[in-house]
Alpha/beta hydrolase
Amino acid sequence: MDFVLVHGTTQSPASWARVATLLTAAGHRAIAVDLLTPEDLPVEGYAQHVREQYGGERPVVVAHSGSGVLLPAIAEALGARALVWLAAYIPDFPGGKCLRDEARTMLEPDWIGVDPTADPAKASEFLFHDCDSETEHLALDSLRLFDPAVLAAHPAGPAPEIPSTVIVPTRDRTLKPVWQRRAARERLGVTAIEIDAGHCPHVSRPAEIAGILTGRA
């Protein structure tokens, strides 16, 4: 099975290193793609950018955090067999709102306006508070900002007709867990899988995430 791993808005592909290693050890292929480009692209442009980095067929596509905006387009471009939303923004498929319209509803108030890439202490507080010291050091090395305007402004289209799994970290300090659960149910028609972790469980709980991915695939 192929897994295409899509980083979020505050980390590079390096954030997937441990999960990718575990998936490979279990006999799968894991490709951590890089969304960063020299210039901002439309949503379809980022989907094609991912397509250029992946040469296989019908992968499971896993998106973290703000890259949930891009997940439907990436899935379509790759012919994905399944989607996984990991502590991810789930677009407002029923109502057509964009992420910017929903920010104050879905984000924890203390997270709004924080740039963790400019402040390691804030990164530790909001993203990596559940990591041990060694993992936290590795996580801080993976910090990188990816925040093109299209993520905030892109209106939701129709819901993807591809099986979805939603993983909700119950100690998320950035994206409200209660919002994630409700969005999974109302926007994708699924019950979320909950994990005792912060916003980046692929960093802090890689074995558990790899286990969920292989089990659901």
Summary: The domain at 2-216 is CATH 3.40.50.1820 (Rossmann fold). The chain has a mean pLDDT of 96.
